Amino acid sequence: MKPFIYDYTHDQLLQWMKDNGEPSFRADQVYDWLYVKRVKSFEEMTNLPKGLRQKLTDQFEFVTLTEITKFESRDGTVKFLFGLHDNHAIETVIMRHNYGNSVCVTTQVGCRIGCTFCASTLGGLKRNLTAGEIVAQVVTAQQMLDATNERVSSIVIMGSGEPFENYEATMDFLRNMIHEKGLNIGQRHITVSTSGIVPSIYKFADENTQINLALSIHAPNDKLRSKLMPVNRRFPFEDVIQAIRYYLDKTGRRITFEYALIGGVNDQVEHAEELASVIKDMLCHVNLIPVNHVPERNYVRTPRNDIFAFAKVLEKHGINVTIRREQGHDIAAACGQLRAKHMESTAR
């Protein structure tokens, strides 16, 4: 199969033009058609010579995201289930906030991390997405927003999959998103979330970007984290925290700890005290996430009063904390839920 045109960063397009005997300014023109005008075929790139359009057609494909279904929530959240060229399916979510529109993208078909409270891991990992397949999710979201003269203002890499297990594709995606000749999303308006792939945390710290990093921590100690997140057996809690300290020292940027509260499992005051003892000297922010109910899992949501009690303990220790505002609850907007339903119906 030919590579996707969205797989290529601006630098790679420049090199392709050089290798194919084309002037370098043609890379700017192609990039403009892809990300500013957002065309869907090479034939629409009318300021390119016919011969170049033919070369592009011969050597590249456009990513095809087939809309299997789309749900719109009462709060404005839009969730897509897209079909890929090989009949796999992925989810993408547009979230509307008072500060702009955010797109949550997926980096893998399925997930092998195995978090016991998450629907994304049901069925395991099928394959990595290419950079272009991740890019296409944002471009498609932007094409939808074009109809109302809105724009994508921020991106969160928090959909299905572990982006740091698809590191190079994720980084090429990011390079395309932040390029000034493309969508030009501000680096500080992009957040990458990892479950704790230690080598990639070190690598990302050395990238010298302004892109935000979030760690799905979900427990204050090694034993409980291993129970909730099997990946912790590969990359133990202490090693993950050490990698985060390296990131903080290297970048000087604040880290976000994502903590899914699960009723009676990790949501007690003693868990909050233990978490505070681990992170209180870090430049950090804790985002408490009342766990979404997944029919295939047996966990229950933490009672409201216990959520506030947990937050109060962290605040007592001087830790910045927020409770995630729920969005898209009426459209199964939790990661993997829509795909899991699709897989089930397809299997039938």
TrEMBL record:
Reaction proceeds by a ping-pong mechanism involving intermediate methylation of a conserved cysteine residue. Binds 1 [4Fe-4S] cluster. The cluster is coordinated with 3 cysteines and an exchangeable S-adenosyl-L-methionine. Specifically methylates position 2 of adenine 2503 in 23S rRNA and position 2 of adenine 37 in tRNAs. The gene is rlmN_1. Belongs to the radical SAM superfamily. RlmN family. GO terms for biological process: rRNA base methylation; tRNA methylation. NCBIfam families: rRNA_mod_RlmN. Its EC number is 2.1.1.192. [4Fe-4S] cluster binds at C111, C115, C118. One of its GO terms (cellular component) is cytoplasm. This is Probable dual-specificity RNA methyltransferase RlmN. Its main location: cytoplasm. It comes from the Bacteria. Its cofactor is [4Fe-4S] cluster. It catalyses: adenosine(37) in tRNA + 2 reduced [2Fe-2S]-[ferredoxin] + 2 S-adenosyl-L-methionine = 2-methyladenosine(37) in tRNA + 5'-deoxyadenosine + L-methionine + 2 oxidized [2Fe-2S]-[ferredoxin] + S-adenosyl-L-homocysteine; adenosine(2503) in 23S rRNA + 2 reduced [2Fe-2S]-[ferredoxin] + 2 S-adenosyl-L-methionine = 2-methyladenosine(2503) in 23S rRNA + 5'-deoxyadenosine + L-methionine + 2 oxidized [2Fe-2S]-[ferredoxin] + S-adenosyl-L-homocysteine. Pfam families: Radical_SAM, RlmN_N. GO terms for molecular function: 4 iron, 4 sulfur cluster binding; metal ion binding; rRNA (adenine(2503)-C2-)-methyltransferase activity; rRNA binding; tRNA (adenine(37)-C2)-methyltransferase activity; tRNA binding. Residues 97-330 form the Radical SAM core domain. It comes from Paenibacillus montaniterrae. S-adenosyl-L-methionine binds at G161, E162, S193, S216, I217, H218, N292. The active site is at E91 (proton acceptor), C335 (s-methylcysteine intermediate). It is found in: Cytoplasm. PROSITE patterns: RADICAL_SAM. Keywords: 4Fe-4S, Cytoplasm, Disulfide bond, Iron, Iron-sulfur, Metal-binding, Methyltransferase, rRNA processing, S-adenosyl-L-methionine, Transferase, tRNA processing.
